[in-house]
Automatic annotation (TrEMBL):
This is Glycosyltransferase family 2 protein. The lineage of its organism: Bacteria, Pseudomonadati, Pseudomonadota, Alphaproteobacteria, Hyphomicrobiales. Coiled coil: none annotated. Residues 25-145 form the Glycosyltransferase 2-like domain. InterPro entries: Glyco_trans_2-like (IPR001173), Nucleotide-diphossugar_trans (IPR029044). Signal peptide: none annotated. It comes from Bradyrhizobium denitrificans. It holds the Pfam family Glycos_transf_2. It comes from the Bacteria.
């Protein structure tokens, strides 16, 4: 079956015997992160406590020994071993026919839960039946806060953020606004996919990830659809997950060489998202603002050259965007 079309087949709880239903189905997509698997599972199983848990791993054709490790050390984990890398969103979608949990937790292999994370987040979800998706406080190894409660991207706020123009546009709601109390609980537009707790009934209604997004923007799009369907997206600050970030990309020289492939995937997903949710006008606005950003890049270099400034980042983004217009059908389909 084509990976793009193998997406939202959903096994409803109503079709499962009661004895087969568990508290949570944890889904992890692995790509060359063998060195993290023991740590992520140790943290996850320690946090399980009295919860009943199903664990599913989709391996995206890792070139390390991930599959061998999973089969030998974790025989109770349900493993789907792909012959090729189908992308993050599509890989998560592959788990849908197997789901047995009342809740579904999408967890990155570089995200490590605390012992009380699962019990606290499930208790919140149980007490707030309209919460469809829940995220938590994210921090790095050193405890540094990471953006955990985000606002939807628009052509304007992406332009303002990428060009460092926040002081000139104080009324623009920035995607990663960090000026709020991270200890509280609040509604938000979207939460990052490294710890992404979803109510199964919300998946039954909305589905999971749009397969057009190979990587990046899949959870942004999903949260938008969740909210449009009347569910709430919530940031829960009373639980913390340590998130390293970028481990799969670091392990793949083909993806990280000069950042070219990653940059191309980021630009492609951004274009697909703006076309889907803002129409052709939104796509054209994004391209026009990127043109403005490229002009600002050149002007900054003329006025005050700096060696530590990424040279012409907006110009490079503009070139990528125009090179993708044809292959993506003006941002209506993915290139891979």
């Amino acid at each position: 079956m084509n990976a793009v079309s193998n997406t939202n087949s959903i096994a409803s709880e109503a079709t499962l015997p009661i004895s087969d239903i568990c508290d949570v189905s944890v889904v992890l997509v692995n790509y060359n992160t063998e060195h993290l698997l023991e740590r992520v599972f140790a943290a996850l199983f320690a946090a399980r406590q009295s919860l009943t848990m199903q664990t599913i791993v989709i391996d995206n054709a890792s070139r390390d020994n991930s599959v061998t490790l999973l089969r030998s050390r974790y025989p109770d984990v349900e493993l789907i071993a792909n012959a090729s890398n189908v992308g993050f969103g599509r890989a998560n979608n592959q788990a849908l026919p197997r789901i047995r949990g009342r809740y579904v937790l999408l967890l990155n292999t570089d995200a490590f839960v605390a012992e009380d994370t699962l019990t606290k987040t499930f208790a919140y979800m149980d007490g707030h039946p309209r919460c469809g998706v829940l995220g938590v406080r994210l921090a790095g190894e050193s405890g540094t806060l990471q953006p955990s409660c985000r606002y939807f991207p628009t052509p304007l706020n992406v332009f303002v953020a990428e060009n460092g123009l926040g002081r000139l546009f104080p009324t623009v709601q920035m995607i990663d606004d960090m000026s709020w109390d991270h200890a509280g609980t609040r509604a938000c537009d979207w939460v990052p996919g490294c710890f992404y707790l979803i109510r199964k009934s919300a998946i039954d209604q909305v589905g999971l990830f749009d397969p057009r997004f190979f990587v990046y923007y899949e959870e942004v799009d999903h949260c938008r659809r969740i909210r449009q369907a009347g569910w709430q997206v919530t940031y829960f600050g009373d639980a913390t997950v340590v998130h390293i970030g970028g481990e799969s990309a670091k392990a793949d020289d083909r993806l990280t060489a000069a950042g070219r492939q990653i940059a191309r995937l980021q630009v492609e997903s951004e274009m697909l998202y703006f076309r889907k949710h803002h129409g052709l006008t939104g796509l054209l606005a994004s391209l026009a603002l990127t043109c403005c950003g490229a002009g600002l890049d050149l002007l900054k270099d003329l006025v005050r050259p700096r060696k530590d400034r990424p040279r012409h980042a907006q110009l490079q983004k503009l070139k990528l965007a125009f090179s993708l217009l044809g292959p993506t059908g003006w941002a209506t389909r993915p290139t891979r």
